[in-house]
Amino acid sequence: MTLHTSLTVAVGLLGLLNLLLMVGVIRRLGAHTAKLTELQHRVNRGAGLRAGGRIDRFEASAVDGTAVSSDSLAEGTVVAFFKPGCGPCKETQPEFVEYARTSPLGRDGVLAVVVGTGDEVREMVAALSPVTRVVVEPLDGPVAAAFSLEGFPTFARIGADRKVSAIGHDAGVLAPEADTALV
Questions:
Q1: pLDDT per residue over 101-130, tens digit each?
Q2: Long-range contacts of 87-93 (CB under 8 A, 24+ apart)
Q3: Domains of the chain with bracketed CATH
C-alpha cells in the first residue's frame, strides 16, 4: 500500500512539474510571438519611412560618377533599393528595369540603390546602369540611412519637399496612382 501511495504522489508531483513547465513555455512563446509580430510589421512597411515622411538629407555618388543627393530628387522621382542574394529583389528587378526604360521621367527620374560591395553587386549594376542612375553602398550607406531602410526590395516615389508619396516592397509603388498609399 505504501508503494502504491508513493507512486501516486510521485506521478502527481511529476504532473504538477509538467504543468508548471508548460505554463513557462506558453508564456515564452507568447513573448516570442509578440516580437515576431512587431518584426513582421516593420518588414511589411518596406522601410522605416512611411508615406508622407520626409527623407533625410544625403549625398552619394552614382557608379557613373555623377553626384546624387536628397536635393537632386525631383518630385516624382522613383528610388528602388536592391540587394544581391535577395530572392524578391531578383524577381522584381526585371519589372523595375522595364519601368525605368519606359519612364517618362527619364534616366534622371529613377534611382536604383544596390546595397552590397565588391563582386556581389556587379550583375545588378550591369542590368540597372543602362536605364537608371545607380548608387552602390553598404547597408549603412547614406541613401539607405536617409530612407531608414529596413527591407528589400523597397520602392519609393518622392513627392514634393523631399516627402515620400508612396513606399513599399511591391513594385506597384512605381505607378503614380500609388501616391499617398502605403503598398
A1: 998 888 889 999 999 988 999 999 999 999
A2: 88/152, 88/153, 88/169, 89/124, 89/152, 89/153, 92/153, 92/171, 93/124, 93/127, 93/128, 93/153
A3: 59-178 (3.40.30.10)
